[in-house]
Amino acid sequence: MKPEEELKKVAQEVSVCTKCELHFSRKLAVPGEGPVSATIMFIGEGPGFHENEQGRPFVGAAGKFLDELLAQIGMKRQEVFIGNVVKCRPPGNRDPLPQELTACSEYLERQIQAINPRVIVTLGRFSMAHFLPNAKISEVHGQAMKIKGRLIVAMYHPAAALHQQSLRSTIEADFARLPELIAQAEQMPEQIEEAPVEKQEPKQLSFF
Ligand code: URA
Ligand code: SF4
After folding, report:
1. pLDDT score recorded for residue 192
2. What's the domain range around 58?
3. pLDDT (tens digit, 9 = 90+) per residue, 144-199?
4. Which pLDDT value is given to residue 193?
5. Which of 108, 109, 159, 160 is buried deepest, with most CB atoms within 10 A?
């Protein structure tokens, strides 16, 4: 299947998905959006009130701030992919539960496979934990980790940074590094499909 077809298929499946409890309370699922050719993906936590109404990611206050952060580095929303680790709104914007994150991760993985971005920016700790389960955001934010041939960069969630001045300066500084990290990632060799590791026969010990 062509990557753009797979991306559409994921969105279609998500729109009617019943794999976790979040489907009961959602209005519209939010599969995420952006070009299949995007070099960079931004992955947030989950839809909030406005996203659930519109079926689009980051369209509320946090989204407006994300647009500003992108503009500060000369990028537009239309050229990046924006998605979430869970595609349906947790009631009252509560944290997503482990079983919800697990149920939904298949969709995110398929989106990543289809888009094959050079850089993935995680926004907030639930998104970070999908890629870096043991990392602490206060320790790793803004740093690039090379995973499976791409760079994963953890950042604070824009909703948190919006109202806290120290985090706001931090996320702005972390964003400012992105153009350089993208350039760096574009120079990295793409990870080829993992070849099956050939079984190494234990060497015969020779006594002679
Ligand atoms: N916060 C998120 O994590 N994702 C959205 O789509 C909107 C707000
Ligand atoms: Fe399906 Fe994900 Fe929505 Fe749960 S959050 S119902 S797994 S699309």
Report:
1. 60
2. 3-186
3. 999 999 999 999 999 999 989 999 999 999 999 999 999 999 998 887 655 444 44
4. 56
5. 108
**Which atom belonging to ligand 1 lies closest to the Cα atom of 62?**
8
Residues with CB under 6 A from ligand 2: 14, 17-20, 22-23, 29, 86-88, 100, 103-104
The angle at the Cα of 113, spanning 111 to 118, to the nearest 5 degrees, equals 100
Q: CA 141 to CA 171: how far, in whole Å?
A: 8
Tell how far the Cα of 189 is from the centroid of ligand 1, in angstroms: 31
Nearest ligand (C-alpha, residue 54): 1
Taking CB atoms and a 6 Å cutoff, what residues make up the pocket around ligand 1? 44-48, 51, 57-58, 62-63, 84, 159
pTM for the full model? Answer: 0.92
Q: Domain with 179 in it: what CATH number?
A: 3.40.470.10
Assigned domain for 192 exists:
no
**Smallest-distance ligand from the CA of 19:** 2
* C-alpha closest to that of 145 among 121, 113, 179: 121
